[in-house]
Amino acid sequence: MDFRTTYSQRIKTEAKRLGFLSCGISKAEFLEEEAPRLEKWLNNQMHGEMKYMENHFDKRLDPTKLVQGSKSVISLLLNYYPSEGQKDPDAPKISKYAYGTDYHFVIKDKLKQLLHFIQEEIGEVQGRAFVDSAPVLDKAWAAKSGLGWIGKNSNLLTQQVGSFYFIAELIVDLELEYDTPVTDHCGTCTACIDACPTQAIVEPYVVDGSKCISYFTIELKDEISKDYKGQFDNWMFGCDVCQDVCPWNRFSKPHNEPLFNPKPELLEMSKKDWEEITQEVFSKVFQKSAVKRTQFSGLTRNIRFLKDD
């Protein structure tokens, strides 16, 4: 058996042990198919005020420019699908991924452990861990590594488990055995396009980020345009609509990562509780949460926007 095959199998076994849903590996090289797509998306201003998307264009498309001497991109998926949701059906909604501890911390820790394992077991290997906080096209690498296909809602979809998972990667200077992409299984389905409250999926496989509820409630720093009044489907942080309606998410199973479990009060809060939330309650409920990104002022702005409907 080739050393690359052996190393790859050992890495995948360890990734499973660390709790990752799946692991796929691809060659670190220029993303030829993605380059024109990304350029067009940026030229059409679909990133709105997310100016950081314009930075490091070449690094986004070529990991060898990001990590010196890199040979392989190890892509990993980590399930975050919760076993229960918010209790009050009228309460403003939070995207499922933000229920528990901020995923950046949880995944970074696991990636460090995986890199340490590779260095211990295989030898002098250099690499860097990425969790959507650097110019890396996570979904493109995961698709290239055979972990799923990019669906019409621009999320990575997997036949066995849907799409409620985080994507992360280790970029290393080690040659490994590379996986091959899987085929697209969206077929003629347009459930996500039909259900998007703000028509952000402007054509199959293209999402105008500047129209997405997640963008408005998290990324946008200014006031939300009144043009979108009544279109937010009661989402105050993020939005799961295009995932909730996706037929492949019938196969989602609850995660088993204790750190992703929400504080009980988060699920218990009523519509009234949210409308009267104080800085103190915000700090307590979202102590280590991704929701801190929008800050108290951002979350209350979102709640006000929904309330005035």
UniProtKB/TrEMBL annotation:
<feature type="active site" description="Proton donor">
    <location>
        <position position="132"/>
    </location>
</feature>
<feature type="binding site">
    <location>
        <position position="242"/>
    </location>
    <ligand>
        <name>[4Fe-4S] cluster 2</name>
    </ligand>
</feature>
<feature type="binding site">
    <location>
        <position position="60"/>
    </location>
    <ligand>
        <name>cob(II)alamin</name>
    </ligand>
</feature>
<dbReference type="InterPro" id="IPR017900">
    <property type="entry name" value="4Fe4S_Fe_S_CS"/>
</dbReference>
<keyword id="KW-0819">tRNA processing</keyword>
<protein>
    <recommendedName>
        <fullName>Epoxyqueuosine reductase</fullName>
        <ecNumber>1.17.99.6</ecNumber>
    </recommendedName>
</protein>
<feature type="binding site">
    <location>
        <position position="153"/>
    </location>
    <ligand>
        <name>cob(II)alamin</name>
    </ligand>
</feature>
<keyword id="KW-0846">Cobalamin</keyword>
<feature type="binding site">
    <location>
        <position position="189"/>
    </location>
    <ligand>
        <name>[4Fe-4S] cluster 1</name>
    </ligand>
</feature>
<feature type="binding site">
    <location>
        <position position="132"/>
    </location>
    <ligand>
        <name>cob(II)alamin</name>
    </ligand>
</feature>
<feature type="binding site">
    <location>
        <position position="246"/>
    </location>
    <ligand>
        <name>[4Fe-4S] cluster 1</name>
    </ligand>
</feature>
<comment type="subunit">
    <text>Monomer.</text>
</comment>
<keyword id="KW-0963">Cytoplasm</keyword>
<keyword id="KW-0560">Oxidoreductase</keyword>
<feature type="binding site">
    <location>
        <position position="214"/>
    </location>
    <ligand>
        <name>cob(II)alamin</name>
    </ligand>
</feature>
<dbReference type="InterPro" id="IPR004453">
    <property type="entry name" value="QueG"/>
</dbReference>
<keyword id="KW-0170">Cobalt</keyword>
<comment type="function">
    <text>Catalyzes the conversion of epoxyqueuosine (oQ) to queuosine (Q), which is a hypermodified base found in the wobble positions of tRNA(Asp), tRNA(Asn), tRNA(His) and tRNA(Tyr).</text>
</comment>
<comment type="pathway">
    <text>tRNA modification; tRNA-queuosine biosynthesis.</text>
</comment>
<dbReference type="GO" id="GO:0052693">
    <property type="term" value="F:epoxyqueuosine reductase activity"/>
</dbReference>
<feature type="domain" description="4Fe-4S ferredoxin-type">
    <location>
        <begin position="174"/>
        <end position="206"/>
    </location>
</feature>
<feature type="binding site">
    <location>
        <begin position="239"/>
        <end position="240"/>
    </location>
    <ligand>
        <name>cob(II)alamin</name>
    </ligand>
</feature>
<comment type="similarity">
    <text>Belongs to the QueG family.</text>
</comment>
<dbReference type="Pfam" id="PF13484">
    <property type="entry name" value="Fer4_16"/>
</dbReference>
<keyword id="KW-0671">Queuosine biosynthesis</keyword>
<feature type="binding site">
    <location>
        <position position="186"/>
    </location>
    <ligand>
        <name>[4Fe-4S] cluster 1</name>
    </ligand>
</feature>
<feature type="binding site">
    <location>
        <position position="212"/>
    </location>
    <ligand>
        <name>[4Fe-4S] cluster 2</name>
    </ligand>
</feature>
<feature type="binding site">
    <location>
        <position position="196"/>
    </location>
    <ligand>
        <name>[4Fe-4S] cluster 2</name>
    </ligand>
</feature>
<feature type="binding site">
    <location>
        <position position="156"/>
    </location>
    <ligand>
        <name>cob(II)alamin</name>
    </ligand>
</feature>
<keyword id="KW-0479">Metal-binding</keyword>
<feature type="binding site">
    <location>
        <position position="167"/>
    </location>
    <ligand>
        <name>cob(II)alamin</name>
    </ligand>
</feature>
<feature type="binding site">
    <location>
        <position position="221"/>
    </location>
    <ligand>
        <name>tRNA</name>
    </ligand>
</feature>
<dbReference type="InterPro" id="IPR017896">
    <property type="entry name" value="4Fe4S_Fe-S-bd"/>
</dbReference>
<keyword id="KW-0411">Iron-sulfur</keyword>
<feature type="binding site">
    <location>
        <position position="192"/>
    </location>
    <ligand>
        <name>[4Fe-4S] cluster 1</name>
    </ligand>
</feature>
<dbReference type="Pfam" id="PF08331">
    <property type="entry name" value="QueG_DUF1730"/>
</dbReference>
<dbReference type="InterPro" id="IPR013542">
    <property type="entry name" value="QueG_DUF1730"/>
</dbReference>
<keyword id="KW-0408">Iron</keyword>
<keyword id="KW-0004">4Fe-4S</keyword>
<feature type="binding site">
    <location>
        <position position="239"/>
    </location>
    <ligand>
        <name>[4Fe-4S] cluster 2</name>
    </ligand>
</feature>
